[in-house]
Amino acid sequence: MRARKLVRTRIMMLVTLVTLTVTTPGSFAARRFQRPNVLLVTIDDLSTDLSIYRNREVVSPHFKRLASRSMRFDRAYTQFPTCNPSRTSMLTGLRPGTTGILDNTVFFRTLLPDVVTLPQFFRQRGYFTMNIGKTFHGVGDKSWDDLSSWDISITPGGRNKWRSGEGRNLTNDKIAWARWVASDRPDADHPDGRVASAAVSALEELHSTAEPFFLAVGFQRPHSPFIAPKRYFDLYDLAQLELRDPPAERSDNLPSATTKRDARIFRRMQEGDRREFLRAYYACVSFIDQQLGLLLDTLDRLDAWDDTIVVVTSDHGFHLGEHEWWGKNTVYEPSNRVPLIIYAPGVPLRRHRSRRMIELVDIYPTLVELAGWVPSAELEGRSLVPLLEKPVRPWSKASFSQVKRKKFDGVSLRTKRWRYSEWNAGENGVELYDHSNDPGEYANLATLPEYGAVVRQLEELLRSVFPDN
After folding, report:
1. From 68, 207, 322, 336, which residue has the greatest number of CB atoms within 10 Å?
2. Closest CA to 126 of 36, 1, 212, 210
3. How are beta strands 179-183 and 152-156 bridged, if at all?
4. Can you spell out the DSSP letters for 202-256?
5. Pairing mode, if any, of strands 430-434 and 418-423?
6. What is the pLDDT of residue 7?
7. Rg of the chain's alpha carbons, rounded to an integer?
8. 83 counts as catalytic
9. DSSP H or E stretch at residue 300
10. Which three-class secondary structure state does DSSP give residue 163?
11. How many CB atoms are closer than 10 A to CB 268?
12. Using CA atoms, how far apart are residues 147 and 21, in angstroms rounded to an integer?
């Protein structure tokens, strides 16, 4: 008990150099086991389509550095491409249809007062659990933080001086969030820079003790508005950026999947606007990559790789012009596919990538098993430990996601070859895409008679997760 209070006191002293909001939930449980530490890093709105591990356009050396020593899951999918539903699903191990969290307005404890979250599971078993930044939705709002999950939760903040610099709105102020700022302030003046600094201090202090910890670090960029220090904007030449223009021949199915007003505005963006959008987004990715590098440097300096599990992922993806859409909350691949990198000490890697279909809801049982426990049967995900050990093993699994846009409810599944989606139980449209020759999902095959058997098979599979759709 005394040791845990000492750890908390030291951490609080270390992070006082960072402007923050602090929540300290109270008493600590006794520790019983020496287990591997856990570092969970979540990044908001991180597109996998830009392939941070291999895309030469995107400057992301530290993502590549971590991926080179870890397992990279190339077909990982969110369960809901919006912040609150996705994070609730990932951190409870339950699908959005089970949690009931389908938008950004309801705190999950309102509907799930007794659910045991992922960090809470570790805390109940003697881990010191700490959150820095945005892990659950509602960063900076104490009423949205889950006191039962954390021993300490901090939200580095500060004055808005980091917003000063050159920038503009890319839609003539018609969409408020679509703006960028090349800040004239250094990394440390930005909230995510403060998150990284606090996380480095926390890692140093936590690793100096002999007690296991679960440290969650949540970065907000590249979430809009696209604000990063100017030096990251300077990495990119606007003229060299490759736009994702749709093919001339494509099915007209976008209106059901997006907000019509915003879709019209995005279609009117000029080429220069779109290139600025890409540069601003990439700049934010490179900014976060640098912050991730600080964490990796700390693990190197502490020689902590032998006893620390590292997971890096995002809550959902992000369209960067695909289907003439810039944003999230669609049933398409760019919105639902997410990066996922897992480093697990003691698990020898035969390969460094797996192309098996997996979901964010799988992270909870995976970390439980890696720490030495048996995942609960109530969890709706599947442990990825077998794929860490053998990434090419047979793996019978599809990935399921859903969206909600005013009067449109969409559900979708992705198999190795197909994406199948329904809107309002099919009343407002059905979509079928063949990824073997249409990875951009532009040719809807659902109404073609020759694909009837495929549609019926995938519809039955969809009902296994969405029986009431």
Report:
1. 336
2. 212
3. unpaired
4. HHHHHHHSSS-EEEEEEE-TTSSSEEEEHHHHTT--GGGPPP-PPPSS--S-STT
5. antiparallel
6. 61
7. 22
8. yes
9. helix 271-301
10. helix
11. 12
12. 14
SS3 assignment for the chain? CHHHHHHHHHHHHHHHHCCEEEECCCCCCCCCCCCCEEEEEEECCCCCCCCCCCCCCCCCHHHHHHHCCCEEECCEECCCCCHHHHHHHHHHCCCHHHHCCCCCCCCHHHHCCCCCCHHHHHHHCCCEEEEEECCCCCCCCHHHCCCCCCCEEEEECCCHHHHCEEEEECCCCCCCCCEEEEECCCHHHCHHHHHHHHHHHHHHHHHHCCCCEEEEEEECCCCCCEEEEHHHHCCCCHHHCCCCCCCCCCCCCCCCCCCHHHHHHHHCCCHHHHHHHHHHHHHHHHHHHHHHHHHHHHHHHCCCHHHEEEEEEECCCCEECHHHCEECCCCCHHHHEECEEEECCCCCCCCCEECCCEEHHHHHHHHHHHCCCCCCCCCCCCCCHHHHHCCCCCCCCCEEEEEEECCEEEEEEECCCEEEEEECCCCCCEEEEECCCCCCCCCCCCCCHHHHHHHHHHHHHHHCCCCCC
Q: Residues 171-191: pLDDT tens digits?
A: 999 999 999 999 999 999 999
Structural domains in the chain plus CATH codes: 2-394 (3.40.720.10), 407-469 (3.30.1120)
Q: What average pLDDT does the structure give for the chain? A: 89
- Partner residues linked to 313 by β-bridges: 42, 340
Catalytic residue among 83, 207, 223, 319: 83
Tokens, residue 101: 């969290």
Which pLDDT score is estimated for 12? Answer: 59
Coil, strand or helix at 411: strand
- pLDDT band at residue 224, thresholds of 50, 70 and 90? very high
The token pair at 143 is: 């009423």
Hey, what are 270's tokens? Answer: 């000029």
The rounded distance, in Å, linking the Cα atoms of 339 and 250 is 27
pLDDT per residue over 266-303, tens digit each? 999 999 999 999 999 999 999 999 999 999 999 999 99
Residue-wise pLDDT for 80-103, tens only, equals: 999 999 999 999 999 999 999 999
| Burial classification of residue 245, based on how many CB atoms lie within 10 Å of its CB (0-12 exposed, 13-18 middle, 19 or more buried) | exposed
Question: For residues 56 and 295, is the Cβ–Cβ distance under 8 A?
Answer: no
Distance of CA 95 to the CA centre of its chain: 15
The answer to whether residue 379 scores a pLDDT higher than 70 is yes
Query: Which residue of the set 62, 137, 207, 223 is catalytic?
Result: 137
Q: Can you give the pLDDT at residue 261?
A: 84
